[in-house]
Design goal:
Layout: H1 2-25, H2 30-33, H3 40-61, H4 68-82, H5 87-108, H6 112-132, H7 137-160, H8 167-183, H9 194-212, H10 215-218, H11 224-249, H12 257-287, H13 298-316, H14 320-352
Length: 353
């Protein structure tokens, strides 16, 4: 339990530092963020998101060896922020350890969504290996997308078993998830029309979630179910936005504002929204920290998506002020969310007395 909580503290520290680096990338607080700016993306993606997912998988498996993955992921993130040259080795080893965790889970429960999670972790490991081998970051980023989107979709498939879903739709989402994961390798081993395949499968996954996800039903239930459902469905909408930008351009550019818009639509709009939606559920299970739901949680969720919309519009319409304000709003949303969770926790303790 203490290890889990320590890892979450490391995740929080990494998130704060990485967010400061992100603000530096859009020209804010440059005097204190300049050195962090180039490390912002890998630290947040591989440090915060991978550590959280690996920790959740370790708790689900219930084996001590499974904690190697989140420990290495957290260590790799801190090394990345510190500029340690060997940090990428820790990230690669973390992803390999996560593959091992998912293999153990598949052996315990061999069903479509566990196999999809395994595929996602393989994509992550191969991408990290290519990164360590010196491939440029823009070729690696799609594999990171492949891991997160595939893993989250797999978890939503698992939950969607609680609601009646047509058999063809259940099979379709597995095919789409696998297709998207495999299409991310086109950047490492190019093949014709890969960007369109990547964009089409990504958009189709977003549409599937909007139509068939359990969140459509739980949206009608008050409290935490509605909050979580809203986070899930808004996230699915951002997948469609990212897909539309990708399909319109016909390729994922190596840098620039379209690149920025696609990445943040996926990693902030989809992945971070899912973290917001599920943290009140995950924290009690992982760290045994009860977080009672409070309606104030809707505020940071709204700030996150509105500020992301401003950032993406700023990217696409060449509006630097909108981009900067949107980035600052993203950081504010994270701070508000953390404060809201702490306030909800404190109010519960006060009532208990």
């Amino acid at each position: 339990l203490y290890l889990r909580r320590l890892l979450l503290v490391m995740v929080a520290a990494t998130a704060i530092t990485a967010v400061l680096g992100g603000l530096g990338r859009v020209g804010l607080f440059v005097s204190i963020t300049a050195s962090l700016a180039p490390r912002h993306g890998p630290a947040f993606v591989l440090g915060v998101f991978v550590t959280v997912i690996a920790l959740e998988r370790a708790v689900a498996l219930g084996k001590a060896l499974a904690y190697v993955a989140p420990i290495l992921a957290a260590a790799g993130a801190l090394g990345t922020l510190a500029g340690t040259p060997h940090a990428a080795y820790a990230s690669l080893l973390a992803s390999v350890a996560l593959v091992g965790t998912n293999v153990a889970i598949v052996r315990r429960q061999s069903v479509s969504f566990t196999w999809l999670m395994l595929l996602g972790s393989l994509v992550l490991a191969l991408g990290n290996a290519a990164w360590l081998a010196g491939r440029p970051i823009f070729e690696i980023v799609p594999t990171w997308m492949g891991f997160f989107v595939t893993t989250i979709v797999a978890e939503r498939i698992e939950l969607s078993r609680l609601a009646p879903t047509p058999r063809w739709a259940s099979r379709l989402v597995v095919v789409l998830g696998a297709l998207f994961a495999l299409s991310t390798f086109g950047w490492l081993v190019p093949f014709p029309e890969n960007a369109r395949l990547l964009g089409a499968s990504l958009g189709a996954l977003g549409l599937w979630q909007l139509r068939f996800d359990l969140a459509r039903r739980t949206l009608r239930r008050p409290g935490l179910p509605r909050f979580a459902a809203l986070g899930v469905l808004l996230g699915a909408g951002w997948l469609i936005v990212a897909a539309a930008i990708l399909l319109e351009g016909g390729t994922l550019p190596p840098a620039g504002l379209r690149y920025d818009a696609i990445l943040h639509a996926v990693f902030v709009g989809y992945v971070l929204s899912m973290v917001f939606a599920h943290a009140p559920i995950i924290l009690p299970a992982v760290a045994r920290i009860a977080i009672p739901f409070h309606p104030v949680l809707f505020v940071p969720l709204a700030v996150l998506h509105l500020s992301l919309a401003a950032r993406v519009v700023g990217d696409l319409a060449l509006l630097p002020a909108a981009r900067s304000h949107g980035s600052l709003g993203n950081a504010l949303a994270l701070a508000l969310y953390a404060a809201s969770l702490l306030a909800a926790r404190r109010s519960q303790r006060t009532r208990a007395r």
